[in-house]
Amino acid sequence: MSEQKKLYIKTYGCQMNVYDSERISDALAPEGYSVTADENEADLVLLNTCHIREKAAEKIYSELGRMKQLKLKKPEMQFGVAGCVAQAEGQEIINRQPMVDLVVGSQAYHNLPEMMRDVAKGQKPVDIDFPAEDKFDHILRSKGKRKLPSAFLTVQEGCDKFCAFCVVPYTRGAEVSRPAQKIIDEAKHLVDQGVVEINLLGQNVNAYHGQGADGEWSLARLIRELAKINELKRIRFTTSHPNDMDDDLIAAHGDTEKLMPYLHLPVQAGSDRVLKAMNRKHTAEEYLKLIERIRSVRKDIALSGDFIVGFPGETEADFQDTLNLCEEVRYGQAYSFKYSTRPGTPAADRDQVDEVEKADRLKRLQTLLTKHQYEFQLSMVGKILPVLLEKPARDPGQFVGKSEYLHAVHMDAKAEQVGTIVQAKVTRTERNSLGAEIVK
Ligand code: SAH
Ligand code: SF4
Ligand code: F3S
């Protein structure tokens, strides 16, 4: 066993980065690293970064600037940058912030042990290659009980869609699906560790087409297979593209009990002109028809989405189409952003919408989305919902869990109920959560 060292990982961006951070710590565990929540005691600090919007990327440099203080106090502390900023900027990060010892792109985490040996020799390795093999192939999931009963599992990575605003096809590479058996094995391992809910991840998760026992499997096929694992109680998946929502996956929402009635299906905008300029390859009408078909098999499904306002060329009339679409769909929950210029993407060179206008549109859209979210939460009051209890909440004796619709639900409970699904009667709604009482 090598010498004991402490690893501090700070994770930014999407759920896939959360998953990757766990795999990074698994990759470094055999090198003697254990994870710490305290940056001050770290031997190695890793920032697992996001490049999706300008602000997200700039945050990394200001964080590194702040972390110089740590280095002053403890000069032997090492710093690494991982994730999508690392993938996009590579060596440039070290040029701009020489304190950084290593840069590891989103597809090279399996090389981290070797990179750390190079760092020990005084080198500053940069690895932003896209290898052909599964980057987590040789990394064993750590053993022992898990803190949370819910876990992420990446099944697909990368994207071939090239929406005109988006960096993901560049930072995550081409779309790759993991073989089905690897996913099933990993799911079983998670279940052995006490996990009862798995959230299947992919940048375009519903484009999944991994090798199965009898040819390529779709996401629906994979979900049906995972549903056979007895102790696994809940399955979710995110994020989906409307154009990859096939008949079988829609059907699965109707016939697979363990598949939760929640679907994150970003549309980005409600105007066909803008959708076309974004290269989304579907119209607003087609999206609404799709939602109708999903609701016809699962009436109560909660829908969630992503929106971009102020995409280059978006007029007030286009923006109104987005508001209209939201009125039609009534999302249970949604994310919305001002368009952020990403150098190297097709939309970056187009005529930009005024910043003040963007901010105003975002405010109006968020007001509407918040209203719908609140109304959806209000409709839960008085209902009895199955809630997967996850962890203690802030108040003593209080715990928080997730409804099938992914609401955070607070209630009084016993510690031994964590990890189980309780029946809880919703008594009130807060801004972003529900309050409930256990009835069984
Ligand atoms: N793969 C997913 C999400 C990718 S990124 C999908 O296809 O939907 C998550 C969200 O960030 C996107 O859905 C989009 O709403 C937002 N986003 C991506 N690029 C952006 C940009 N340049 N400016 C503002 N928001 C952006
Ligand atoms: Fe980005 Fe579009 Fe791919 Fe989603 S589908 S990751 S928004 S390029
Ligand atoms: Fe960000 Fe990379 Fe995820 S850019 S949103 S961390 S795929």
Write the layout of secondary structure elements.
Elements: E1 5-11, H1 15-28, E2 33-35, E3 44-49, H2 54-73, E4 78-82, H3 83-89, H4 92-96, E5 102-104, H5 112-120, E6 126-127, E7 150-154, E8 156-157, H6 168-171, E9 176-177, H7 180-192, E10 197-201, E11 211-212, E12 215-216, H8 219-226, E13 234-238, H9 247-255, E14 262-264, H10 272-277, H11 284-297, E15 302-309, H12 316-329, E16 333-338, H13 355-378, E17 384-392, E18 398-403, E19 408-412, E20 421-429, E21 433-438
Parallel strand pairs: 1-2, 1-3, 3-4, 4-5, 5-6, 7-10, 10-13, 14-15, 15-16, 19-21
Antiparallel strand pairs: 8-9, 11-12, 17-18, 17-20, 18-19, 20-21
Helix pairs in contact: 8-9, 12-13
Bound molecules: S-adenosyl-L-homocysteine, iron/sulfur cluster and FE3-S4 cluster (F3S).
Attribute tags:
3 domains; binds S-adenosyl-L-homocysteine; binds FE3-S4 cluster; about 450 residues; five-stranded mixed barrel; binds iron/sulfur cluster; 13 helices; Rossmann fold; OB fold (Dihydrolipoamide Acetyltransferase, E2P); alpha/beta
Structural summary, described in words:
The chain folds into three domains: 5-127, Rossmann fold (3-Layer(aba) Sandwich), CATH 3.40.50.12160; 150-378, pyruvate-formate lyase- activating enzyme (Alpha-Beta Horseshoe), CATH 3.80.30.20; 384-438, Nucleic acid-binding proteins (OB fold (Dihydrolipoamide Acetyltransferase, E2P)), CATH 2.40.50. It is globular. By secondary structure, it is of the alpha/beta class. Helices cover 33% and strands 23% of the residues. The model has no long low-confidence stretch (mean pLDDT 96). Bound molecules: S-adenosyl-L-homocysteine, iron/sulfur cluster (SF4) and FE3-S4 cluster (F3S). Iron/sulfur cluster is lined by residues 159, 161-163, 166, 168-169, 203-204, 241.
